[in-house]
Amino acid sequence: MYFYILSVEFRGIVQKRFRWGRGAVTENEIATIVVDACFQIHKRLGPGLLESVYETVLEHELKRRGLHVSRQTSIPIRYRDIHFDEGFRADLIVEDKVILELKSVESTAPVHRKQVLTYLKLTDLKLGLLINFGSRLIKDGITRLVNRLEETATNPDFPL
């Protein structure tokens, strides 16, 4: 068990949250940190670079903020006790709880949302974010997708 210090900047206000132990951070808190990191990256680098650039920088930024991040994680298909490794790969998985699928395109298509929902169902994770760094405004490029996520009352400390 170890101590997390999560520093989140939201609307110009730096908030610090203290958490004990791995897994103490909720999906919604992770999403808030990810959205802030994406905003900072988009502000510094702008839109339209290759997806791999944003993936590398976002991984670094989230690790800098104290989160565990897995990159290009293989997602197998399990069916009737058979394990198929079909080459699905999640761009980033944060804290083993939230899947991030990054794009750098003019606009996302319905197939991109299906991709994230497929990953969520195959991993049995609850929250995924489809993030399009190709959007002129990053807030327009973030889509939240859920797989049986129990929403709690809105937490004013971590608005989305």
| Total domains | 1
Beta content comes to 35-45%
Structural class: alpha+beta
- Report Rg: 16 Å
Largest sheet: 5 strands, mixed
Helix content: 25-40%
- The total strand number stands at 7
Strand order of the largest sheet: 3-4-5-6-7
Shape: globular
What would CATH call the class? Alpha Beta
- H-E string: EEHHEEEHEE
Q: Enumerate how many helices there are, as a single number.
A: 3
Q: How far apart are the termini? A: 28 Å
Please name the CATH topology: Trna Endonuclease, Chain: A, domain 1
CATH architecture: 3-Layer(aba) Sandwich
Mean pLDDT equals: 85
Q: Low-confidence segments, ≥5 residues, pLDDT <50?
A: none
How does this structure look, described?
The chain is α+β, with helices and mostly antiparallel strands and 160 residues long. It has one domain (3-146): Trna Endonuclease, Chain: A, domain 1 (3-Layer(aba) Sandwich). Helix content is 29%, strand content 36%. It is built from three helices and seven strands. It has helices spanning 27-45, 51-64, 110-123, and strands spanning 3-10, 13-20, 69-79, 82-94, 98-103, 127-132, 142-146. The strands form two sheets. It has a five-stranded mixed beta sheet. A two-stranded antiparallel ribbon has the order 1-2. A hairpin with a 2-residue loop joins strand 3 and strand 4. Helix 1 packs across helix 2 (51-64). The model has no long low-confidence stretch (mean pLDDT 85).
